[in-house]
């Protein structure tokens, strides 16, 4: 399981956000992309998206990482 943890900070706007995700297998041969986001230090919102194969889930994860990078999120050590 590859866990990705990103943070974005803008002290002028009091913006301190995190975004984390990982791909994990389901019990029926499917795969899920689990995402959590919110303010650093607070519990976040969790969402699971299901895919028929691991490759599709990893492709969706890579696309999200690229999109978050464009918005200023930077990788941080995982919690």
Give a written overview of the molecule.
22% of the residues lie in helices and 46% in strands. It has one helix and five strands; from the N terminus they run E-E-E-E-H-E. It has one helix spanning 54-70, and strands at 4-10, 15-25, 31-39, 45-51, 74-75. A five-stranded antiparallel sheet has the order 4-3-2-1-5, covered by helices on one side. The chain is α+β, with helices and mostly antiparallel strands. The chain has one domain: WGR domain (q64v53_bacfr protein fold). Pfam families: WGR. InterPro entries: WGR_dom_sf (IPR036930), WGR_domain (IPR008893), YehF/YfeS-like_WGR (IPR049809). This is Polymerase. Residues 1-79 form the WGR domain.
Short description, anyone?
This protein has one helix at 54-70, and strands at residues 4-10, 15-25, 31-39, 45-51, 74-75. With 79 residues, it is of the alpha+beta class. It has a single domain, classed as q64v53_bacfr protein fold, CATH 2.20.140.10.
Order of helices and strands: EEEEHE
In order across it, which strands form the biggest sheet?
A: 4-3-2-1-5
- Model regions low in confidence, pLDDT < 50 over at least 5 residues: none
The average pLDDT value, as a whole number, equals: 94
Domain WGR: 1-79
Protein name: Polymerase
Pfam families: WGR (PF05406)
Organism: Methylomonas lenta
């Amino acid at each position: 399981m590859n866990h990705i943890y990103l943070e974005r900070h803008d002290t002028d706007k009091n913006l301190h956000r995190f975004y984390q995700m990982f791909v994990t297998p389901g019990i029926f041969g499917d795969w899920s992309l689990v995402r959590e986001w919110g303010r650093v230090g607070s519990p976040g919102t969790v969402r699971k998206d299901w895919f028929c194969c691991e490759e599709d889930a990893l492709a969706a994860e890579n696309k999200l990482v690229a999109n978050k990078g464009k918005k200023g999120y930077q990788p941080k050590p995982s919690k």
